[in-house]
Specification:
single chain, 140 residues, mainly beta, 47% strand
């Protein structure tokens, strides 16, 4: 059955089902998880989708199994696990305003890239490992 996903400023993503070619879509499922407006959605693989939000989180979803959702993490300058006594700064990045996913050589490097509001920093993520990437890239 064909479907579409919509997202808005109400923090929700809605999965709509289209049962017949000439019919109006009907609400199938609400995909929850973000606490601020969703800024970008990208599909990859056959049944997978990632979303980015102004809350700074990137989340992965299985489109067929609506009960499967995974947080890939929050956009920070360092990973939460790397914050220690020597590295005590936990600096969140600006909200994510744009995202893109590429599947070529997805196993070799991070394949999700996010642009942040009013920031020269671009964050990377891995849909395969379902985690924040190792790199922060500056546009300058």
């Amino acid at each position: 059955m064909p479907y579409l996903i919509s997202a808005g400023v109400d923090n929700r993503m809605i999965k709509w089902s289209v049962e017949e070619e000439q019919s109006l879509p009907i609400i199938n499922t609400e995909l929850a998880g973000h606490s601020a407006p969703v800024s970008s959605i990208a599909f990859f693989a056959e049944n997978s989708m990632v979303s980015a939000s102004l809350d700074g989180y990137v989340r992965g979803y299985n489109i067929i199994r609506d009960d499967i959702m995974k947080s890939l993490g929050k956009a920070r300058e360092v990973k939460k696990s790397e914050v220690s006594r020597d590295r005590f700064m936990d600096v969140p990045l600006e909200p994510i305003v744009e995202m893109d996913v590429g599947m070529a050589r997805e196993g070799a490097w991070d394949n999700v890239i996010c642009r942040h509001k009013n920031s020269p920093i671009v964050s990377t993520w891995s849909s395969r490992r379902q985690t924040k990437g190792e790199k922060l890239v500056s546009k300058f």
